[in-house]
Design goal:
Blueprint (H helix, E strand, L loop, with lengths): L1 H16 L1 H6 L3 H34 L6 H25 L2 H7 L6 H35 L3 H13 L2 H19 L4 H28 L6 H15 L1 H12 L2 H24 L1 H8 L18 H14 L2 H7 L1 H16 L1 H8 L4 H15 L4 H4 L7 H6 L4 H31 L3 H28 L8 H5 L3 H23 L5 H24 L6
Length: 527
């Protein structure tokens, strides 16, 4: 069975990252897109490692070096939990892919374990990106014993197991509840977003408590941070104590307990896999269909409504693309609740609210437009659009309009809450209203442009399109770039009026949007 697990895991990872297709294709365009995607992954990894290095220096400088391992352990676990429960349902409990694999000469146990291994390997890569910079900086600054590195690497290898089990349970519960609802996809998406919002709220409360600690005594603060981490995530506290103080029995107990739980979950799941999948994917229908009145609509309106129906038919699509808009609303509500001064103190960045708020609001609403996946989500049915007697321009316009109509309610709520919190002057009011709007329109057009350059029409799971495609990473980098440049200018030149940067940024975004839109109109439906 180990050979079967190895082969299925390797095949799943190659399919997940598109390695097999690139190896055997003769299309140079696909190889170029794969190289671009690899470059985006490497860049994101370097940015994450750079952030962790800076954070390590900051904690060591504050006298919190002993807290660093457990803090990074908690961060890695929470992020794995946050992203894993999004994909756990489709990746582990996908009945369609199981029906395909069941015809192969492999056991059910091998199929289940290989799916866990695929998630484990991807999450382990992220864990290493988070933990390794902390280990390196800690070693350079404090010169710990050899046991620090040995126990640290052992603990990191077992780190993804517990959040994976928790994410699997949450994903199964959400899928089970959502499948019994009338509108299954919308129900699952709403439950997912509620859980995501709860995680963000807990993180904000935790950050607020951290800011309220007494900074006068670093040693005392280290003790308080350690106690808080113990309450929030006890395994991280065990890990930190084990690697810092060289306690072999502690790291052995932690790894044994986590691996035992992981093996129990895998064992139970592989034994009742078919039954669980059938229950989680069950649907109900009523035989009460009645033909209603037929209405004729304009072509652009029909395409717009078609795009919205396709959007709400996928819980993965909804939950991943709405998270940025929801974060914008949460941030605006927090601004109103805590006040601008308190928000600046919590973030530790002077001028965050009064100089950077319109840019920050725009970035949150631009980081994941629906258009970045709209072409790829057509998948094998893309030929239907190609066969319609419609100009490509109207198809693209329908996708852009769907994005803008979804963003509009969140934009309005965020702007109203921001205005109530900041009570801006007339010139400031204009920028709070216009800057996020420019970002939203630009991201909708840029997202479609990136998806046209990096289409993914052959996929087995919607997770591959929404969370792991080149277009998703590409638009995230674009949104980050158009936010980072004006933000960096405001930080580099504190005496420069923010209005000049905002106005210049809107002009540049407007020009870029117009250029990209014209380019889109000339593109045919021939991906």
């Amino acid at each position: 069975m180990f050979r079967q697990i190895n082969l299925l895991t390797r095949m799943g990872l190659c399919n997940l990252f598109g390695i097999n297709e690139v190896r055997h294709t003769r299309d140079s365009g696909k190889k170029q897109r794969f190289a671009l995607l690899c470059g985006a992954w490497i860049l994101i990894g370097l940015l994450l490692m750079s952030y962790m290095i800076l954070l390590s220096f900051a904690y060591i400088g504050m006298g919190l070096a002993d807290v660093l391992p457990m803090y990074f352990y908690t961060v890695a676990s929470m992020v794995i939990l946050f992203f894993s429960f999004f994909k756990a349902g489709d990746m582990v409990f996908s009945l369609r892919s199981y029906e395909l694999q069941a015809s192969w000469p492999v056991s059910t146990a091998a199929i289940v374990i290989s799916r866990f291994m695929i998630m484990y390997v991807t999450d382990l890569l992220f864990s290493l990106l988070v933990m390794l910079p902390g280990f390196v900086i800690y070693g350079i600054k404090l010169h710990p014993a050899v046991s620090f590195y040995i126990y640290g690497m052992i603990g990191t290898l077992f780190l993804p197991m517990l959040p994976l089990c928790i994410a699997l349970l949450i994903g199964a519960v959400i899928r089970a509840i959502g499948s019994r609802m009338k509108h299954k996809s919308i129900g699952i998406a709403l439950l997912t977003l509620v859980f995501s919002t709860a995680i963000v709220a807990v993180s904000m409360i935790y950050s607020n408590n951290m800011e309220n600690m007494d900074m006068s005594r670093a040693k005392g603060m280290a003790v308080m941070v350690s106690q808080m981490l113990c309450k929030v995530y006890p395994p991280a506290w065990f890990f930190g104590k084990a690697v810092v103080e060289g306690r072999f029995l502690w790291i052995l107990g932690l790894c044994t307990g986590v691996s035992a739980l992981f093996l129990c979950v895998v064992g139970i799941l592989q034994k009742y896999f078919v039954t669980i999948c059938s229950l989680l994917n069950a649907t109900s229908a009523k035989n009460n269909y009645k033909m209603g009145a037929q209405h004729q609509k304009s072509r652009i309106r029909a395409l717009w409504q078609r795009e919205l129906r396709r959007y709400f038919a996928s819980s993965i699509y909804v939950s991943n693309t709405l998270i940025g808009y929801i974060l914008a609303v949460i941030a605006s509500a927090a601004l109103l609740f805590f006040g601008p001064d308190k928000m600046e103190m919590m973030a530790g960045i002077p001028g965050l609210v009064y100089r950077l708020w319109p840019l920050l609001l725009g970035f949150m609403m631009a980081m994941m437009p629906t258009t970045a996946c709209s072409i790829s989500m057509e998948g094998k049915t893309f030929w239907r659009l190609q066969s319609l007697p419609l100009p490509a321009k109207e198809v693209y316009d329908g996708k852009i309009l769907a994005n803008l109509s979804l963003a509009a309610p969140f934009y309005v709520v965020s702007v109203i809450l921001s205005i109530m919190a900041l009570r801006p002057k007339p010139d400031e009011l204009v920028f709070i209203i216009l800057v996020p709007a420019f970002y939203i329109v630009f991201s909708a057009v840029a997202g479609l442009t990136v998806n046209m350059a990096l289409p993914l029409l052959k996929w087995d799971s919607e997770v591959q399109v929404v969370k792991q495609s080149g277009a998703t990473f590409g638009i995230l980098l674009v949104a980050f770039a158009v936010w980072l440049i004006p933000t960096g200018i405001l930080f580099a030149f504190p005496q420069l009026p923010a209005s000049i940067v905002f106005l210049s940024g809107m002009v540049i975004l407007g020009i870029l949007t117009a250029v990209l839109y014209v380019k889109i109109q000339r593109q045919k439906l021939d991906f």
